């Protein structure tokens, strides 16, 4: 039994959905649980719907959502699905909310709206596969994965979820060659409110199922041969890595590499389940295997995080920041559900680098101003290099100004002007 995960790029066009069918036919003798993301850039489009709704521009929110409805009807029709009425319940699920007025936090509405992308995508692909002779059972993952109500970064109720997997999912996979097709990224509270597991959380969903089903392996199908040592769109010299261990991938994800969702590895490592990253464009290619063994001779791992903000905090009365003020700051981070990407302590100052989520940065500055003088510096880039060398770092920094630098024998981080 294996778990497959197909990202949004793998189902972004009619041709690529046909390609997914071809890959599943190649594994016809395997029992599979298949996790599929929202099509293409649907999540981005749904985020704009939420933003319009939350600023009380109801007409704009409905107009944007109408475009999403039409694009999914068109996608279904292009795949030969003449009757698209099976999508209507998902459309209604969002529209009843958009006709209301926001009275709760933004994150709550984000999860209720954005989750529909995965539901629409999987409903279309599941029906198409069945009509193509690739028999599968569609499953609403919100009936399986139980979470708390920490919207946009929900935590899994492992005990309840494990019971649902035993009672509902395992029987559907009992027959050789059975396929269950479900969504990534989403879950639900015990009150049946939709939640999300963090941006790009479909990898994590697949790992949850791999762990609870004790799968032989998990495969993530991407548009590259496997894991690269850098994003090819940001670094021309990016190269494929044949083999990695769990720890290295966790480090890569922690520093912002977009290869694997940060929470994915632990459920796999706990059960010793190997993770494969393969190309859906070239299924014959070797790909990358990630496991628990030592791997030597890795190339430098390069991660760029753009749109960073340097938050400079200084104590007003020259008190040492370590005397309680740092603890106050981390309590603020915890309250805002906001994580610094880099921190540095001085005697009477504290520097932190965060993603430029305007709402959270402003809230951080507001709360921190109770204890510190606060200055913000935007439009920065955080460069992280693991297994670094001086020549490479100098070349990567180029003519950019260096604002902040931290270094260990394994990892170097530099904050640069863009």
From TrEMBL:
Matching Pfam families: AA_kinase (PF00696)
Alphabetic keyword roster: Amino-acid biosynthesis, ATP-binding, Kinase, Nucleotide-binding, Transferase
GO molecular function per UniProt: aspartate kinase activity; ATP binding
SUPFAM superfamilies per UniProt: Carbamate kinase-like
Record-listed E.C. numbers: 2.7.2.4
Segments forming domain Aspartate/glutamate/uridylate kinase: 3-279
Pathway: Amino-acid biosynthesis; L-lysine biosynthesis via DAP pathway; (S)-tetrahydrodipicolinate from L-aspartate: step 1/4; Amino-acid biosynthesis; L-methionine biosynthesis via de novo pathway; L-homoserine from L-aspartate: step 1/3; Amino-acid biosynthesis; L-threonine biosynthesis; L-threonine from L-aspartate: step 1/5
Record-level GO BP terms: homoserine biosynthetic process; lysine biosynthetic process via diaminopimelate; threonine biosynthetic process
GO terms for cellular component: cytosol
Catalytic reaction equation(s): L-aspartate + ATP = 4-phospho-L-aspartate + ADP
InterPro entries according to UniProt: AceGlu_kinase-like_sf (IPR036393), Asp/Glu/Uridylate_kinase (IPR001048), Asp_kinase (IPR001341), AsparK_Bifunc_asparK/hSer_DH (IPR042199)
Domain of life, per lineage: Bacteria
TM region(s), chain numbering: none
NCBIfam families linked: asp_kinases
Stated family: Belongs to the aspartokinase family.
Protein name: Aspartokinase
Organism of derivation: Flaviaesturariibacter flavus
């Amino acid at each position: 039994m294996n778990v497959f995960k197909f990202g949004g790029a793998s189902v972004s066009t009619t041709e690529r959905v046909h390609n997914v069918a071809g890959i599943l036919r190649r594994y016809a003798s395997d029992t599979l649980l298949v996790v599929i993301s929202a099509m293409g850039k649907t999540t981005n489009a749904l985020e704009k719907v939420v933003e319009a709704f939350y600023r009380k521009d109801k007409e704009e929110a409905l107009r944007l959502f109408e475009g999403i409805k039409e694009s999914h009807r068109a996608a279904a029709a292009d795949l030969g699905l003449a009757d698209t009425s099976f999508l209507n319940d998902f459309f209604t699920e969002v529209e009843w909310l958009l006709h209301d007025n926001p009275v709760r936090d933004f994150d709550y509405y984000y999860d209720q709206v954005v989750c529909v992308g995965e539901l629409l995508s999987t409903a279309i692909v599941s029906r198409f596969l069945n009509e193509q002779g690739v028999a599968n059972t569609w499953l609403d993952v919100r009936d399986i994965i139980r979470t708390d109500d920490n919207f946009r970064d929900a935590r899994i109720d492992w005990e309840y979820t494990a019971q649902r997997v035993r009672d509902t999912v395992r029987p559907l996979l009992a027959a050789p060659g059975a396929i269950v097709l479900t969504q990534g990224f989403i879950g639900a509270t015990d009150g049946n409110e939709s939640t999300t597991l963090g941006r790009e959380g479909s990898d994590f969903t697949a790992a949850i199922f791999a762990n609870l089903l004790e799968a032989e392996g998990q495969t993530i199908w991407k548009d590259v041969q496997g894991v690269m040592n850098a994003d090819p769109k940001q670094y021309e010299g990016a190269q494929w890595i044949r083999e990695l261990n769990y720890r290295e991938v966790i480090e890569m994800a922690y520093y912002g590499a977009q290869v694997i969702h940060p929470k994915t590895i632990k459920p796999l490592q706990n059960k010793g389940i190997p993770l494969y990253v393969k190309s859906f464009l070239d299924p014959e290619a070797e790909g990358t295997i990630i496991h628990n063994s030592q791997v030597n001779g890795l190339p430098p791992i390069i991660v760029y995080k753009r749109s960073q903000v340097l938050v400079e905090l200084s104590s007003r009365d020259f008190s040492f920041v370590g005397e309680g003020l740092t603890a106050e700051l981390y309590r603020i981070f915890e309250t805002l559900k906001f994580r610094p990407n880099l921190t540095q302590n001085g005697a009477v100052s504290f520097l932190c680098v965060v993603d430029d989520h305007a709402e959270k940065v402003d809230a951080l500055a507001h709360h921190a101003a109770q204890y510190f003088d606060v200055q913000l510096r935007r439009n920065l880039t955080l460069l992280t290099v693991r297994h670094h060398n001086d020549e490479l770092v100098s070349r990567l920094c180029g003519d950019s100004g260096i604002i902040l630098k931290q270094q260990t024998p394994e990892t170097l981080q530099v904050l640069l002007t863009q």
